[in-house]
Amino acid sequence: MAKTMETTTGATNVSTVTMGKALNLALHDALQNDSRVLIFGEDVGKLGGVFRVTDGLQDEFGAERVFDTPLAEATIAATALGLAMKGFRPVAEMQFDAFSYPSFQQVTSNIAKYHTRTGGACNMQLVIRIPYGGNIGAIEQHSESPETYYIHTAGLKVVTPSTPADAYALLTAAIADPDPVIFLEPKSRYWMRQEIALPMPPAALDKARIAREGSDATVIAYGPTVQTALAAAEQAAAEGTSLEVIDLRSLSPLDMETISASVRKTRRAVVVHEAPVFMGLGAEIAARVMHDLFDVLAAPVERIGNATIPYPPARVEKLFLPDADRILEAVDRTREY
Amino acid sequence: MAVREATLAGLSREQLLNMHYQMVLLRRFEEKAAEEYTLGKIGGFLHLYIGQEANGVGMFSALHPDDYVLSAYREHGYAILKGIDPHAVMAELFGKATGSSKGKGGSMHMYSNEHHLIGGQAIVGAQLVMGAGVGLAIQYQGEHRIALVLFGDGAVDEGAFHEALNLASIWKLPVVFVCENNQYSMGMAVTKAWAVSSLEPRAAAYNIPYRKVDGMDALAMREAMREAREHAVNGNGPFLIESLTYRFRGHSMADPAYYRTREEEQMWKATRDPIALFEEKLKAAGIMRDEDIQATNEKVDALVEDCVRFADDSPFPDPDSLYTEVTLDGAGAIAWRNKPSTPRE
Q1: Mean pLDDT, chain B cut into blocks of 10 residues (345 residues total)
Q2: Surface of B (80-99) touching A: CB under 8 A
Q3: Which of A252, B166, B198, B251 is the one with CA 20 to 30 A from A294?
Q4: Which residues of B touch A68 (CB under 8 A)?
Q5: Chain A residues 172-201 with a CB less than 8 Å from chain B
Q6: Which residues form the domain of A311?
């Protein structure tokens, strides 16, 4: 599938890959380019990860660089901390979203605070990868969107890709970043395919991306909901409405500059995420947009997300997850206000 | 001696045949669940107990109905053994409103107040510390019962294992801890995950009595549990059992088990199948005949088919029911409610 072609910039490897494979390639290249990179977690070595993201890496780089740990999430996080202190660049995996909660203490109390606590003497250059989100027919503890817990913790950067290309570019950047990065991987998009060209420059960790330009309303999405928003925009276009779609990429820090510029243009905003609406990231964005653009807005900011219930059973999850229709209904509300 | 008067391990023929029936039921129930999962009728994850049946059946035969049970997520069998109607267990797997938790718990979260089944936990190790809490409550209230905490070898690696054993020991809690060591925490071989080759030194570290048991021998499991329960229920503190067992299938339906060899699996299935071993033993003792096995298989097949029929025919929960039972006082606690979208033309 991969083919090599000569371009003016040198050898470029172009291939169509899934997001899972793009992440795998980013990890592969990080291991290859930097001997300080170590990858570890539950079943990331011999098995190659539940979602195959680390497939083949142990075979190629050896069990000294890519290794399995016992089931001990707090220890996995704290081991990353210890390694980071000694100059390694650890990339740890939590197998599922809710499996990260046993590690929460180490992440929030230690990893997030070390740089401040030491007066800047000790930074935490590490990445914790967490598959998150639903829509894969799983269940609570395997479908959750825990981003607010991490966003709410100062000292952490929180990033999530929505495409294979961004998955590669953002993970590469996260590993190179001097701060601790919580890297959230949208499970339902692991199988999404896209043509990517390598080598690829790392993406900025704090910049949102305009995924589609439009003029009538701005839909702000991230991770798994970006494709949903784009589908909504496609349908809206057929109905004569032009939607701009922003892919946040970075959840913390938040690229308010890109959001504000878009909403200043469209005067309407809808935020969409899988996480519960109540106290979700949409609440912060809505508050900031209303504060900064109060005189510009044509309608209150709309928010789409899950209800305030534990993640629903597989059979009914689709009734609760944001879909294109719910986004369009929210857009309608901003236009009919 | 007539067949119906024969005994083994102090159990009557009827009791022994019932244990056999339970093992076959657990096996067939899981096989059927796997089929239904493949047909797309069961969502989420499905962790099968196939191969480990002697553990549950042996242990539960020595429990008192009042005893509490807490476990990991490989737990459909425990729910059935504790007395939940298998129809309701299957319906729970299907996510139906007639399930034991109204379809809201699913495969990994069986629960029943009536049967004192606190049930399964998806987060590895959680039940160990919870079991200490239940044990403390039992002790506080002076009740004559135990909390049985079931877990796999992977849970031993979590901090919760150590915190729970220490606490239960210093407070002499009526808790029996049982590690069904099936030798893999998903893909991680126990020999790579543990610093020691058995739990004996860990039990010693917390001053807890320990027994190692053949987890493919239902009668050995029963005997160990009888001793452990006796110890714990009489105020002597916790007890730790480690059973050596094997899951015949992958960790879950999604696991192709690349991390172990087909030869290893075949060796266990061919020589250590707990049901086959039990049948041989009972036949050798003149307690069971081939006709008995045949009759049990037919009875179980019919029951399991009926469970699937029941689950198939049951309704899914009303989406609105997802807003209830979040907090006890209901609507006031729901901070955000979704209106399902209307598909556009």
Answers
A1: 68 96 98 96 93 98 98 97 98 96 92 95 93 94 97 96 96 98 95 96 98 98 98 98 97 89 96 98 95 98 98 92 79 65 75
A2: 95
A3: A252
A4: 187-188, 192
A5: none
A6: 209-334
